[in-house]
Amino acid sequence: MSADVTAQILDILITKYDVPADELTESTVFEDVAIDSLALLEMALMLEKKLGIPIAEGTLGGHQTIAQAGAAVGALLTPAS
Q1: Which of 6, 18, 19, 28 meets the CB 3.0–4.6 Å disulfide criterion with 70?
Q2: Model-level pTM?
Q3: Which domains does the chain have, with CATH numbers?
């Protein structure tokens, strides 16, 4: 599930924030491509709308890689056991 979220994050970075696709991998850190805390908050809101889940402020952080962010949001999609 986190792979799907990671793909959505990559898509948002490319389409909304105009980050060139060749600068992005799953190990890219948000700060390294000039994505700041305001952009991350906006991205969280977009993901909330797409996924239909609440994402707490601070779930996405500038020091995270795209894969870490995808895993953090993907974990919110997994029902607790």
Answers
A1: 6
A2: 0.91
A3: 2-77 (1.10.1200.10)
